[in-house]
Amino acid sequence: MIALAKMRLTAYLKTGRVLAPGLVVLLALLLFHGGGRSEAAEAYAVCALILFPAYAWQTRMILDGDPDVQRRLATVAVGSARREQAAGLLAATAAGLVVTGVSMALPWLIGAVEAEQDPLAKQLAIGLWAHLLALLAGLVLGALSSRAVTESAGKGVAVLAAGSALAIVLGLPKTPLAWVLPPMTAVAKTVSRHTLTAANTLGYTALAVAWVAVGLLVYARLRRNRA
């Protein structure tokens, strides 16, 4: 499984498919941080929200890198469909962690953030937490928009675009569907307002984990029925 994950990640890099999402992420981060200095936690929380569609897009590109026949051969090679699915998600997670590292480091390199209101360690922890929530949610959305699930590239793009828009627009705490969507928008808003507490941190984390768990179950079921 690890070898298959490495192979898919290597293919993502060597075929140049990394360039499109990579350049979009870099441009989006530079544009956002170009507005002036801000508190690190606030900047990181908003960046995590911005990166959510990018995480999903990158995941979809990695999972769609193999032709259908090659994907089925990989399933045979690793011994089960579950291991083949896990290998793809593992490769996407590794790529997402690289994006997270860039997002965490870049604002300090260009002098776009500061840590005056709260200790730096606390703000970095909040930023990493927000990014990991967005990464996990992006992995699920990207998996659900992959060709093995949607059965066509066009449907996959539609699922990716619609899922990203709905999660961002309807993810505010007071919207009717907030409890069934990943909480990246709510996290960004809460951190920006400096109202993040231990209670709502635990609540947002629990909601994200539940959403990811359900999403992965749906992904596994659809893959079994359609792949």
Q: What can you see in these coordinates?
A:
The chain is mostly helical and 227 residues long. It has one domain (2-226). 78% of the residues lie in helices and 2% in strands. The protein has helices at 2-14, 19-33, 40-63, 68-78, 81-109, 120-144, 147-150, 153-169, 184-192, 198-226; strands at 38-39, 113-114. Helix 2 runs antiparallel to helix 3, helix 3 runs antiparallel to helix 9 (184-192) and helix 5 (81-109) runs antiparallel to helix 6. It is globular, with a radius of gyration of 18 Å. The model has no long low-confidence stretch (mean pLDDT 88).
Topology of this protein?
Elements (H helix, E strand, L loop, with lengths): L1 H13 L4 H15 L4 E2 H24 L4 H11 L2 H29 L3 E2 L5 H25 L2 H4 L2 H17 L14 H9 L5 H29 L1
Parallel strand pairs: 1-2
Helix pairs in contact: 1-5, 2-3, 2-5, 3-5, 3-6, 3-8, 3-9, 4-5, 5-6, 6-9, 6-10
